[in-house]
Amino acid sequence: MKTLVTMGRGGTGKTSFTALAAKHFIAKAQTPILLVDLDPDQNLAEMVGIDLDKEGVKTIADLISETFIKRGGTTTGIAPTERIESRIWEDGLYEGGSFDLIAVGTKWVEGCYCLPDSALKGALATITKNYRYVLIDSPAGLEHLNRKVASQVDDIFDIMGPSHKSFEHVKRAHRIIREVKIGMNRFFIVGGYLFPESEEERAKTTLPHEYLGKVVQDPLVQEYVLSGRSLLDLPDDTPGYLSVKEILGKAGY
Ligand SMILES: Nc1ncnc2c1ncn2[C@@H]1O[C@H](COP(=O)(O)OP(=O)(O)OP(=O)(O)O)[C@@H](O)[C@H]1O
């Protein structure tokens, strides 16, 4: 099992990178892959052509809220992790032919972080074991790292945007990952579709991480996102997809 995480600042193209990576891994894997959307905005499902409401699939935040908050569930009896895990299998997992998807959803009630976080962490750790590839899309920013929802991952892809802050983001993200002790094998940096080519050299020389290349700006990707079409249906030879494939190839995928 390989777990890949996409992260970065807002609007750098994280979710589209994850969706295009999904297209690649679906073609590569013989069994369904798992997509995990940690972003409360939940764009990943839409980018791969799924409407969770229509599918009757609940977010983990909904399940946690129903189980522990509305019903007043306690930590006695069955462990919270197991309760949530069994609910995810029933109501929180979209199952498709080539991929399954879990969405974390909007934040639960303020002040109730410990239980949901540990439940989610434990459940994710168990559920992800069933897949050959797990792709996790993160929200913008770094807070999710502190919450350490995923505690062991293989590769992190930090997508850089067209601002100096992206360089700072890479440094901060890497530091937090080490500080909160998220287990990780490799930390890569990727130029997002708006990352200037003129900055690539600086990324390669000033950051202590491997720079894998830049996602090509592709009008067809933009058109598909705008019209709500699945990025999985993009032609195989569209430049945006080819660039993501090449980037993943450099990481050995
Ligand atoms: N390769 C590309 N070529 C052209 N446009 C792109 C490309 N990738 C993404 N975009 C456009 O950029 C916008 C933002 O992309 P995306 O949602 O993937 O970013 P994000 O970093 O996940 O955003 P957020 O921080 O809001 O979660 C989308 O509307 C999409 O149309």
Automatic annotation (TrEMBL):
<dbReference type="InterPro" id="IPR050625">
    <property type="entry name" value="ParA/MinD_ATPase"/>
</dbReference>
<dbReference type="InterPro" id="IPR027417">
    <property type="entry name" value="P-loop_NTPase"/>
</dbReference>
<dbReference type="InterPro" id="IPR014433">
    <property type="entry name" value="CooC"/>
</dbReference>
<protein>
    <submittedName>
        <fullName>AAA family ATPase</fullName>
    </submittedName>
</protein>
<feature type="domain" description="AAA">
    <location>
        <begin position="8"/>
        <end position="185"/>
    </location>
</feature>
<dbReference type="Pfam" id="PF13614">
    <property type="entry name" value="AAA_31"/>
</dbReference>
<dbReference type="InterPro" id="IPR025669">
    <property type="entry name" value="AAA_dom"/>
</dbReference>
